[in-house]
Amino acid sequence: MAQSKKPAKRSPQQDIEPHPVKGRLRPLSRLIIHPKWEQLLFQTGQAWIGIRSEGSSIIGACFDCKLHSPPDTAAPACSGVIDETGKTSSFACRSGFRIHSVTAKALEIEFDQIAGIATRATFHAPTRVYGEIFNRNVVSVDVQMSGYHGAAVSFDKILKVWRMDNEEIKCTLKEQGDISVVKWIPGTPLSFAYSADTSFIRLYNVETNKVLRTLKGHSAPVRVLTFADKGRNLFSASQDGTVRLWDITRRDPIRTVAVHLGDLINCISVQTAHPTVTTAYSASNPSANDGRVLLYGTQDGQCLRIASVASDGVLFQQQVDSAVSCCAFLQHPYFACGTDTAHIYYFDWRKADRPFAHWQESRGSILSMIAHRGSGVICGTQDGTTFYRNPVAHPRNDLTMEFCGGDEPVTRVCQYPGNLVTCCRDGKIRQYNL
Asked: 345-393: per-residue pLDDT in tens?
């Protein structure tokens, strides 16, 4: 009897051929409120709240919060009592909303009156608004981990550094070409990196007001910067279709990690992968066991990929519905991305052949994304909303935090211990408690 041939062993590269996610999703329902609800509520005593759901019109009610118990007659659709501490206990609304708590900067609401819809959100008002740093179009922001200084870039090619406590301007730079991104260098007191002169990256020190080094290697504008290895190494993504790795003590790149000429790379995230991730690929490609992996998303290719920094080998790739505009490594084993059509994809390294979770937001494009609380994400959007979701901790995806204040695109979000900072096309930089 002829022996049956054993099937050829597949390489990891063969196992990760891109495959599209098919099917139309119903956008998630979400609670909505006026962007400046805290001003309305504590100046006039009223604020409008509502829920947006596909297939139905917006359902809303007027939340009327008095400093004393409302009379039984002519009670508003939604009312409650604030005690001496500035909080209110949970109470129901005739229109189906339930207000769980109200403070000067946070409002927690629940709605569960439509079949198949149950959602709860905490709306956060900014604790501080930096409105005098720029007057329009802030495109990038970053804050030191200490929280002492912030740095931001405007669309009119100006970069400013200021003290977070009193808004004192410490440094102002203007370039001939666009400045797209700024990042503080970890482990240094007052040094940062920014894109300049279309394809260069400059390292700058605020105390000396001097350029420390200019990094050259890209042939088109640099759109994304992220540091690794406690600030020694820098990853940059450019419109030339490459991601490059730099040792910031040298002027030339160490290596080109990803090459997609003709396809823009919109976003990157770097992580030292869990040993179970790289071990799976080390048999066929020993150099892939370096440990560092690069997550990145493309524009025209509509693809999310993970590559080994050491070998350039592709460990994962997934075709999505549209351009990948932002991505983030989360707590192992999760990672996520957002797209131009407001889709969010969650993946689990252990079962990476399909999304662990996939949904569409009833908002504008997802413009920026950072990890928060381990496996959660905070996202800034085209319609001016910033929100937090965590489908790992909340599988029904019905619990959110909403960060209010503006109604123009939120171009970047960043965080330092206990605080979230956003920048917006309206020229405002907003800070929130986390």
From this structure: 999 988 878 898 999 998 899 999 999 999 999 999 999 999 999 999 9
pTM of the model: 0.87
Residue 416 contacts by C-beta under 8 Å, 6 or more apart in sequence? 143, 144, 145, 146, 147
Can you tell me the distance from the alpha carbon of 186 to that of 270, in angstroms, rounded to the nearest whole number? 15
Whether pLDDT at 161 is above 50: yes
Return contacts of 417-420, CB within 8 angstroms, 24+ apart: 417/145, 417/147, 419/127, 419/143, 419/147, 420/378, 420/386
Which structure tokens are listed for 390? 């965590």
CA–CA dist 423, 154 (Å, integer):
10
Element holding 279 (H helix, E strand): helix 275-282
Q: Which two tokens stand for residue 359?
A: 């949904």
Contact 32, 50 (CB under 8 A): yes
- Phi and psi for 119 in degrees, rounded to 5? -145, 155
* Burial zone of 170 (CB within 10 Å; 0-12 exposed, 13-18 middle, 19+ buried): middle
